Please model this.
Amino acid sequence: MTKNTRNGPSGLNASRRQVLLGGAALTASLFAPNGLLAADYPTDQVNTTGLAVTDDTVTIGILHSVTGTMAISETGSVQAEKLAISQINDMGGVLGRKIDFIQEDGASDWPTFAEKAKKLLVNDKVASVMGCWTSASRKAVLPVFEQYNGFLYYPTFYEGLEQSPNVIYTGQEATQQIIAGIDWVVQNHGAEKFYLLGSDYIWPRTSNKIARKHIDKLGLKVVGEEYYPLGHTQFNSVINKIKLRKPDVIYAIVVGGSNVAFYKQLKAAGIDMTAEDPMLLTISVTEDEIRGIGGENIVGAYAAMKYFQSLDNKNNVEFVAAFKEMWGEDMVIGDVTQAAYLGPWLWKAACEKAGSFDVDKIREASPGIELHTAPEGYVRIHENHHLWSKTRIGRARLDGQYDVVYETAELMEPDPFPEGYQ
Amino acid sequence: MRAGTKILTPAEILGFVVLALLIFAVFPIALDIFRLNLVGKYLTYAFVAIGLVLCWGAGGILSLGQGVFFGLGGYCMAMFLKLEASTPEATAIQSTPGIPDFMDWNQLTALPIWWEPFNSFAFTLFAVVAVPTAFAFLIGLAMFKRRVGGVYFAIITQAFAAILTILIIGRQGYTGGVNGITDLRTLLGWDIRTDDAKYVLYFVNGVLLFVCLFAAMAIKKSKLGRLLIALRDQEDRVRFSGYDVANFKIFVFCVGAAMAAVGGAMFTLQVGFMSPSFVGIVPSIEMVIFCAVGGRHSILGAVYGALLVNWAKTTFSEAFPELWLFAMGALFISVVLLFPNGLAGLYATYVAPNVDTLINRLRPNSRAGTPKDIVAQGSPAE
Model:
């Protein structure tokens, strides 16, 4: 208990046992500065639209794939969201109410996502949903959220070109990941020739489009651009082309299981990323993916993200410790996992600012909400429902972690519809 | 005897009546609109399963690519709905307003010419059935005329499913890629997302399903149906008797494709989008599983199979989000091990004799629909 109150504002060291004991919630509500009492927020006033809110609980949904091909990526998000929920409950919950959650499995299948989203909104009347990972799943649930006026916190870095009144995008949109990354390799490594490649769907294609425009603007050269179907495992031909055209930078946006084949074959073909000839910059490989790829296959590669597990700040040290305590010492935390962790906290802040669980009021309250306790550092919600965040460059280590070698001085403004990049 | 087989037996009539009661009365009364909409979705798979009963159960043609036809039907409908949703006003934020959003993301600046006809609803309705059927005809012509059959045919249909998926995902500027065609709103100005619309669509779906059921029954009961069973069991003998086996196979394959396509179009209307995840190998095999669970020799069984498997999928996954796949696996294994003829086999063994006794008691003169008949029709021969 003492431990809990001492860490009250961030609540990051709260152990799982305390959550389970339940008494922690009461203590926290007495001592933690954020602890609000449900009595001050009568249910009929904070919930005028029939959401699943009682005098002492509020129910939200978690909608990710925990089965199927995406499970390996999305499990981290589920874990982060559950951690955030238990920490918030430790601090007294939201508007004095404990958060209950209903978890549904999207099963890596977009129609299933739509079905489950509808179930959460229509049947369970959840106050908000933390969920989705791929763009396809988000596109599938978007009409559902807009029709039934639900509120979704979406954690993944994605292609932009979207701004829904019913979604808060806690990951980066494409420009936030790409522009600073390319500027950095140009300024610090004198890169002039780029080889763009990626998996064949909207996110890599849109990202590479922005990358190409930016490279053009800098007066530099793209020597190749190629796409491979999801799940593709034969990269020998592109590796040969890379060797032939000798780019300075391989700009790789390969996703999912293809990554394993791609990096192994790169290494087998004698491309030594530690020697930076050519160097490799990716925006699709987080610590989670490296677990599958194997550190020895990707050591030396650079990644442009907003978060790395090795980030050295107080928030992050506490977050990593709490995450490992809850889910096991061998867990790794990638960019998206951290962004997923922000979801419940941003929602809590919005509810408290609005003094209500009503979706319309939360939407109104959301822009301008700040989070000083985010593991990535300070974040703020932009008018366009995306987050202001920094771009960071990490270099892959043998042990599967990244060394942070660069971060932008300022927060990057989210710009989902970038002028001149479309 | 031939005249007798053309008319529905009392037991079969009873089967239709029970199913009609279930679909048109019990479900709409017992379920709220969210669940009813899900049942409507499950029933769209029943269209595919009925087609498979004809192709596989009766004709012995195992197609592992029915998702292709389901998907083509669904995509035709989705293209129409997407064009209707992409008015210049609704898409004002795009670089090129007035074209579907995914085209804009992929730097298309004009509607591709082969999308144009889908502005017409009449053409769309025609295309929903005609495109998949024509495709099935071409596949059938190429395969069956060359006497490709059995396992080879199954593998080739699977290849078609894979090819079409890759094509759709690869040409994302024209097809929406892996995201599919999403955010469909209205049909001729009528909002298909409201609860009222969902009810209407559910009943339209139910009626179409019965049209397909009767059509399938008519085919099974006709001389053609007899021929299909004959060529399933002894293809050479049918050929030596002077029949052009390939034509029958092509015909039944096209019928299966057309039914799957109608299901796909109804799926798009009820669910509100279409994506390549219904076209590929996995969904196509799932569709065969619906048919197998229902009993591949029984037309009505196919409907129950689609309902049961999908209902189980929804229920298990809601109850055990992380373990539900194991429950599904257990269901399939137990069906295959314990009831190799699916639900229909179960029915034929345990329920039908009692039903027949009952019917015979009510109508002492009737001799139709004895269990022996059902067994004779249903004997597999692979």
Observations:
- Chain B has a mean pLDDT of 87.
- Residues 2-378 of chain B form one domain.
- Chain B touches chain A through 37 residues (CB under 8 Å).
